[in-house]
């Protein structure tokens, strides 16, 4: 997906070969591997949509954002996910963003005072369900934790779960009850349980995108908590897959302006605490974690930097101090790490360009478009049978919808709403354990 090419980009624009490789779960889908996307952002947001959509602007998440003159030739991102290849054939889609799927004439099922944003009058949730029914597929649509927990992976081949009007809540704010949302690790586990049935393997992208938003708010405690939740998802993936045929890649699309500072911090000092020394210029304490820019700059006084003496800097809502004032903190520019484990991990070493990562994953999974496949003898020879993506510090530029965290009031589901396949009582397929997953 291309972003910010120009103010009025051509609608017939095609993805470049490198972009096509970056969206490697749509590379010729030879041997029909299963595919999945898990994110705690909107399913139409920057990172997940790059896997299935072609758009001159990442902000064209629904038709209301598409310029009027482009409606005839350009589909919005949500519609591409439902109607186009490869989106309509992605097996597992778990995330947020119902507002881009429902029309302005309908209210959201959870946030009852919020309407959809589509101007074409279409309900794409109904369209997704209708498409799967028409093709006689074992599919379910769910939108809260109770429905999600009721999905049996053995009898489900397609799962759409959209659990938020916009992004999902931070883990510390998540409603863990039946009317709430599943966690990142729960979505990861369910996705793998569904996808690994395919003997030809699978590709799964898991994004911890709320981690990015926490940094944009200068909330280091929330960011670190999201890192811990990502670690849980990675560990769960390792337990559910076979390391002999699973390539796991953990990386980031960018850094942030967060920095570690301290003259001499003693061993065991809380990472969210103060340096043991005060500033040698203003005599005030400062935290070990700081930001180069962002909303934390607002914590200043007419006499200079705010004195943090007595503040609980380890509070989950504490905003770190920043050097330059901005509504939202920006991304950083330094290199980010790429960690790999499993067959093909040797391809990820040294300093590499970001576009190389997708090519390496496709090569290791034997779905590359060239003839230099890593394992010509197939899965029996030890090639990765599953491919997936795990974003470490994943996220994109904050838009006008990325508001600071607030409590979300959830309503119980109306009777009869929820799944598609429960009413169909399909013949249960024989479960087939697949040999792994790849994350990157």
UniProtKB/TrEMBL annotation:
Residue numbers spanned by region Disordered: 397-440
Keyword Magnesium: yes
Positions of Mg(2+) binding: 45, 47, 207
SMART domains: alkPPc
Cofactor binding, note field: Binds 1 Mg(2+) ion. Binds 2 Zn(2+) ions.
Pfam families named among the record's database cross-references: Alk_phosphatase
Domain of life the protein comes from: Eukaryota
Entry cofactors: Mg(2+); Zn(2+)
Binding site for Zn(2+): 212, 216, 253-254, 331
The entry's keywords: Magnesium, Metal-binding, Zinc
UniProt keyword Metal-binding present: yes
Signal peptide: none
EC number: 3.1.3.1
GO molecular function, one term: alkaline phosphatase activity
Family per record: Belongs to the alkaline phosphatase family.
PANTHER family: ALKALINE PHOSPHATASE, ALKALINE PHOSPHATASE-RELATED
Listed name of the protein: alkaline phosphatase
